[in-house]
Amino acid sequence: MERHKVDISSGHGDEKPVKLAEINYSEENRYKTKVSELDRVLGGGLMPASLILLGGDPGIGKSTLMLQIAKINPELRMLYVAGEESAAQIRQRADRIGIQKSEMKVLGITDLDKVIAHAKAEQPELLVIDSIQTVYRSQLGSLPGSIQQVRECAALLQQLAKREGVTTLMIGHVTKEGDIAGPRILEHMVDTVLHFEGDQSRLHRLLRSVKNRFGPAQEVGVFEMNEQGLSEVVNPSELFLSEMDQEVSGNVVTCVMEGSRPMLVEVQALVTPSSYGTPQRTSSGFDQRRLSLLIAVLEKRAGMQLSGQDVYLNIAGGMKVADTAVDLAVICALASSFKDKPVLQNTMVVGEVGLGGEIRSVPHVEQRLKEGAKMGFTKSLLPDKSRGAESGMEFIGVKYIHQAIRKAL
């Protein structure tokens, strides 16, 4: 990685304003980590002198991802500040994932002033702080992990990255709600915020960019955890549809956009007569309030009586979706399970549902259709306004949910 020292003062220096056109900048300065899913999420690779925050649940694979970078790039000069593990533990994990030769160095201290002194002396191409909640400044009286310590340490690391040109990646803890622990200003200070998501009971992990000053936000990389660490999933659609049974009622395939990447996911619904006075409404991977809204639309606009039915909805594979293009697939899955009739074979369903029961168009239709065709789907149930999108699939256009249910089942 090319070194770039940047002289950024705090407002007391002799710097003068510079014209925007005179500022040197090149995308070629990015350092490719060779972990293609990570490079995708970062916008093309690590930007020199950038400050990155990586958050995620304990044991999700944050530290393993850092070792994965060292494994693929043995020539990368990485300084790994181990605040939560001993050097021996890191060496043990490195041996397990197969790191045989690497320029990575491990530093087992958490006094930030000493860490910065070592970083200036070593001039690493990548500095990893694991984690920001464990490092501290001795001048402050508060404990490591406190708001004061986290804010001060992050500010000093930001100065190190910008003034010395040391690309810095901070690993952060998350709260039980999934937010990065510490002051909210932490996310404003950094250039990039990455979230590592996934259910530990499943093998796949999602790396999502929540904020990125050097590339598009909301990009997603998909990994699979195995004995050798994290392996990249080149075709996520195949992973999420690997166990689908199209002959079972309530199963519908749709396509969601995660950043610029289309991914096919399976929507599963189960509608059964309620045994209690109040019917159950349970969803996994889909907003429960949105599910209640779609059930109300089904009852009002399609005459489907679900008031005495328990409704269970699941996005297979542990995915969490927020794309409104899933609405129509949820409607069709509920109707399929209620009538106990499977949807048409090899049919992909995409569309947003309005309160009037109308099917609204969604963005990136052609990308979604190309992904469906690549995975072997031959029919597409879409909003009628999407007519004309090129895919090679049989187009089934619908305007209202009662038409969609009739054509899908």
CATH architecture of the largest domain: 3-Layer(aba) Sandwich
Our estimate of the beta-strand percent is 15-25%
* Helix amount: 25-40%
Name the CATH class of the largest domain. Answer: Alpha Beta
List keywords for this structure.
nine-stranded mixed β-sheet, Ribosomal Protein S5, domain 2, 2 domains, 11 helices, 409 residues, alpha/beta, Rossmann fold, single chain, four-stranded mixed β-sheet, 18 strands
Structure, described:
The chain is α/β, with parallel strands linked by helices. It folds into two domains: 20-234, P-loop containing nucleotide triphosphate hydrolases (Rossmann fold); 239-408, Ribosomal Protein S5, domain 2 (2-Layer Sandwich), CATH 3.30.230. Helices cover 28% and strands 24% of the residues. The protein has eleven helices and 18 strands. It has helices at residues 36-42, 62-72, 87-96, 112-122, 147-164, 185-189, 236-240, 288-302, 327-339, 365-374, 401-408, and strands spanning 51-56, 78-82, 105-107, 126-130, 167-172, 192-197, 204-212, 220-226, 229-232, 251-258, 261-273, 281-284, 309-315, 347-349, 352-353, 359-360, 379-383, 394-398. The strands form four sheets. It has a nine-stranded mixed β-sheet, with helices on both faces. It has a four-stranded mixed β-sheet with strand order 10-11-13-12. Strands 14-17-18 form a three-stranded parallel β-sheet. A hairpin with a 6-residue loop joins β6 and β7. It is elongated and about 70 Å long. The termini are far apart. Residues 4-13 have low confidence and may be disordered.
